[in-house]
Amino acid sequence: MNLNKLFKLLIDLAFYLMIPILIFFPGTILYILIFPEQTVINVNIPFTENGFGIKALIFTIVFFGLFVLFFLGFYQLRKFSGQLLKQKLFSKEVIKSTQKAGQFFIACGLGSLIFIAIISILTNEGRISITFGSSNFSLLLFLLIVGVLFILLSDAFKKALLLKEENDLTV
Which of 33, 107, 136, 142 is the most buried (most CB within 10 A)? Predict the structure, then answer.
C-alpha cells in the first residue's frame, strides 16, 4: 500500500472516530446537569464532590473547547492528506491547511497546558507532581511540537510554491 494512502486512511479513521465524541459530549453533559443523581454515566470530572456545580461545568466547557480545537486541527490535517493523495503538494490549499492545522494544534496544546496547570493548582492545593514516562505534559508538549512543525511545513510549501511559479514563468 502506498504510504500516502496509508496516511490518508489513518487520518480519516481517527477523524471519523472523533465525530461521535464531538456530537455526544454536549448531550452527555446536559444529561448530567438535568439528572445530577443519575448512575448511568460515571464521570471523572474534578469539582464534582458536592454535585455537578458551576466549577465542574466550566471545566467541561473548557475541556470540550480544547477538544474542538484538536478536532479542527485534525480536519485541516485531513484536508492536507487529501491534497497529498492527489499529488497537489505545492498548492495554496496545502499551505493554508498545514498552517491552520499548526495553529489549531498549537492553540490546543498551549490551552491544555495552561488548563492542566490551573486545574492542578486548584485541586492539589498548589502541589504539582512530575510524572516520568508518558504523561499529559509529554503528550501536550508533543502536540505543540507537531503544531510548530506544521507551521514550518506551511512556510516551506509557500517558498516552494513561489519557486515553482517563478520557474514556470522563466520556461
Answer: 107
Q: Are 106 and 144 in contact (CB under 8 A)?
A: yes
pLDDT tens, residue by residue, 24-53: 888 877 777 777 676 676 666 666 666 667
For residue 79, give the nearest of 97, 55, 99, 59 by alpha carbon: 97
Residue 169 burial by CB count (10 A; 0-12/13-18/19+): exposed, middle or buried? exposed
Position 33: which residue type?
Answer: L
Query: Cα–Cα distance between 133 and 121 in angstroms, integer?
Result: 22
The three cell numbers of residue 87 are 499529488
Crossing angle of the two packed helices 92-123 and 136-170, in degrees rounded to 10: 160
Euclidean distance between CA atoms 48 and 104, whole angstroms: 30
- Cα angle, residue 29 at apex, residues 25 and 33 outer, rounded to 5°: 170
Write out pLDDT tens, residues 79-91. 998 888 888 878 8
Residue 122 has phi, psi (to 5 degrees) of -75, -30
